[in-house]
Write a structure and sequence with these properties.
The chain has 338 residues and is an alpha/beta fold. The chain is 48% helix and 13% strand. It has an 8-stranded parallel β-barrel with strand order 1-2-3-4-5-6-7-8, surrounded by 7 helices. It is globular.
C-alpha cells in the first residue's frame, strides 16, 4: 500500500532523524517495541552529493530493513538535480517517503548552504522541493526551523507556504531557530500558527522528553517527533505511541531491576549494529549508546567506562554478561533485605 501523510493514522509519532544515531540498527530497535507499528522512522540525513559520487558510507546509510516500515529517508544538499537522482534511487529501494533537511544547524552543513541555510534562500528551497516531488511518486516532506537567526512570523509562514506550494506533502517544524541550535526551550506557538495556515499535515519537534510533554504539546498538530530524549531510552517512543492509541506502555525506570529489563534490548541493539557496521566499527558506534543505556544504579559508571574500552564483540558480550550477573546479584540481595 502506498504511504500517504494525509491518510496516515493520527496522532503521528515519529522518530527524529539524528545524525550518528538513527541508523538502521537503532530504527529496528525502536520498531521492535510494542505499540510501534505505526511509528514513522526518519533516517539520518544523507548527502545527495555523496550519493551521486557513490560514497560507500552514503550507500550504507541508505540500507534499511522491511521491519522499519514506514521509513522516511532524509536527504540534504543544495542541487535540485542531485535530489532528483538520489530520490529516484530511494524510490526504487521502496522507502515510504523522502524528507528534505532544511533545519540542520551545524556549521559543517550550513557553511555549504545546506540544511537550515536554505531558510535564507527560499527560492532555492522551493526549487528543490518542486524538482524532487515531480520526479518521484512517494511523498516529499520538509523538516525545518522557525528561522535562521530569529523568528519572523511573516517570513516563517512565507517559507513554509513556498515549499508546500512547490509540492511538500508534510512539514516537520522544530521550535527553534538555526542560531539557537539546541539551546533554550523550543517554542511551539509558531508551530500551531503554521498548522492553522497550511493545508498539509504538520508535525511538531523539540523538547519532547516524556509522554506528558507529547500530550501537552500536541494541540491541533498532526503529530510529534521525538529525538534526543530517545537516546538510551527508545522505550519512550513506545510509551508515547501507546498513550496516543489510548493504551499504556510503561517505560523502564531506574535501578538494578529496571536495568535487567533493559538489558536484552541493549544486547539486541549491539547485535544489529554488528550486522550493519561490522564488529570493530559497531564497538565504536555503540559507545555513545552504551553510555546512555547504562545508568540508574550503583556501579553503573564503572560498567559504562568498560564498554568504552571494548574493541570486539567478545569483549562487549563479556561485559554484558558480567553486568547481568552483577544486577541479578543485587536484585537478589535487595529481595533478601526486604
Amino acid at each position: 500500500m502506498n504511504f500517504s501523510w494525509d491518510t496516515f493514522p493520527r496522532p503521528i509519532v515519529a522518530l527524529a532523524p539524528m545524525a550518528g544515531y538513527t541508523d538502521s540498527a537503532y530504527r529496528r530497535i525502536v520498531k521492535s517495541l510494542p505499540w510501534t507499528e505505526n511509528v514513522v522512522c526518519f533516517s539520518e540525513l544523507t548527502s545527495v552529493d555523496a550519493i551521486h559520487h557513490q560514497s560507500r558510507e552514503a550507500y550504507r546509510m541508505m540500507d534499511w530493513d522491511p521491519g522499519e516500515r514506514p521509513l522516511i529517508m532524509q536527504l540534504f544538499g543544495k542541487t535540485p538535480g542531485l535530489f532528483v537522482e538520489a530520490g529516484k534511487r530511494l524510490e526504487g529501494m521502496g522507502v515510504a517517503g523522502i524528507d528534505i533537511n532544511m533545519g540542520c544547524p551545524t556549521c559543517k552543513i550550513t557553511s555549504n548552504e545546506c540544511g537550515s541555510a536554505l531558510l535564507r534562500n527560499p527560492s532555492l528551497a522551493a526549487e528543490i522541493v518542486y524538482s524532487l516531488s515531480r520526479a518521484v511518486s512517494v511523498p516529499v516532506s520538509v523538516k525545518t526551523r522557525l528561522g535562521y537567526e530569529c523568528y519572523d512570523e511573516a517570513k516563517f509562514l512565507a517559507f513554509c507556504s513556498g515549499v508546500v506550494d512547490a509540492g511538500a506533502k508534510m512539514l516537520t517544524l522544530h521550535g527553534r531557530t538555526r542560531l539557537q541550535a539546541f539551546s533554550g526551550e523550543a517554542d511551539w506557538s509558531p508551530l500551531y500558527f503554521a498548522k492553522r495556515a497550511l493545508r498539509v499535515p504538520v508535525i511538531g519537534n523539540g523538547d519532547i522528553r516524556s509522554v506528558e510533554d507529547a500530550v501537552a504539546r500536541l494541540g491541533d498538530l498532526d503529530g510529534v517527533m521525538i529525538g534526543r530524549a530517545t537516546v538510551g531510552n527508545p522505550w519512550l517512543v513506545a510509551a508515547i505511541a501507546a498513550r496516543f492509541a489510548e493504551g499504556e506502555y510503561i517505560v523502564p525506570g531506574d535501578g538494578m531491576e529496571a536495568m535487567l529489563v533493559k538489558l536484552p534490548l541493549v544486547r539486541r541493539h549491539f547485535e544489529l549494529a554488528v550486522a550493519s557496521f561490522g564488529e570493530r566499527r559497531a564497538c565504536n558506534e555503540m559507545r555513545k549508546h552504551f553510555a546512555a543505556y547504562i545508568g540508574g544504579f550503583p556501579g553503573a559508571r564503572a560498567y559504562a567506562d568498560r564498554f568504552m574500552r571494548c574493541v570486539s564483540s567478545e569483549s562487549v558480550v563479556m561485559v554484558l554478561d558480567e553486568l547481568e550477573r552483577f544486577l541479578r546479584s543485587g536484585v537478589r540481595h535487595a529481595a533478601v533485605l526486604a
